Amino acid sequence: MELEKLKYPIGQCVYQEDYTENELKEFILNIETFPKRLEFAVQSLLEFQLNTPYREGGWTINQVIHHCADSHMNCLIRIKLALTEDNPTIKPYIESLWAETPDYNLPFNNSITILFAIHLKIIEIVKSLTPDQLNRTYYHSQYEKSFRIKDVLCLYAWHGNHHLAHINTLKERMNW
Questions:
Q1: CATH tag, 28-174
Q2: Neighbours of 108 (CB within 10 A)
Q3: Per-residue confidence of the chain (176 residues) as pLDDT tens digits?
Q4: Rounded CA gap, 111 and 77, in Å?
Q5: 102-111 contacts: CB < 8 A, separation 24 or more?
């Protein structure tokens, strides 16, 4: 399988100038159901499978799960910053170095539990947002641009599906 397809099995995230109400509902549904879908995808995997990279040079399944918890914690914080400050500058982080920290050696269920809690908070917030609030922004210094909360919903709906596809395509390739 070609490297680009292994890296981006569902393609890259595509932002739009605007999103329909149905697209926003779909983003929210994907975010809301992500922890359960992730748990289902990995619950029967054995330790050696969890420690298998989804591609050569890529993270193990266990690292992917822990990364999702870290990333989605940042999502929650960034949404709250955008709601409470005027276009705040958020701090980027080096994901590859975070994936080397000792907490990534913990069993995956720790991060699954975190994801369930974080997603409850995210969904509670975003389901109550007005159109004006969905347009509130934060500034991402790494990309040198502002992102609207509705773009963040697009990104994190994609992000969950992106990493689920890493896991599920590895399971299919390995016949697990």
A1: 1.20.120.450
A2: 23
A3: 698 999 999 999 999 999 999 999 999 999 999 999 999 999 999 999 999 999 999 999 999 999 999 999 999 999 999 999 999 999 999 999 999 999 999 999 999 999 999 999 999 999 999 999 999 999 999 999 999 999 999 999 999 999 999 999 999 999 99
A4: 17
A5: 103/66, 104/62, 104/63, 104/66, 104/67, 106/66, 108/42, 108/50, 108/61, 108/62, 108/65, 108/66, 110/69, 111/65, 111/66, 111/68, 111/69
